Amino acid sequence: MYLRNALGALFISVMSATATASVTLLGSRIIYPAPASSINIQFKNDDSIPYVIQTWFDEGDMDAKPQQINRVPFITTPPVFRIQPKSGQVARIVVSQPDKLPQDRESVYWFNMLQIPPASQAAADKNAMTVMLRNRVKFFIALRQ
Cβ(40)–Cβ(133) under 8 Å? Predict the structure, then answer.
């Protein structure tokens, strides 16, 4: 019994190591220095097909949708863009409401990225499943000096 569980865990860990996202955000978190008017973030598409990327912020609610009005004082430009195969893309994060940033402490929000594959890929096969991958990373705002 123990050997079967150990082999099962080994199999799962090997299989999960081969899974990779097609479009990745360079970095594991975003740090926004408060004095800056904007920062750039970089995306990379390692796949052979293009993707549409949609970005938005939330305050920690994992179920927050991009179309919902939120109180995060930042926007991403462009909020929706196409990233070509085997290439990169830069998006800019801008403070939209600087007066809503706390002056006495650092803040934490969440940056969301939705990876949408082309519809033609799913339509090519009758029995296909389209998977849209959503990534969330912490978005830190450094204390104002």
Answer: no
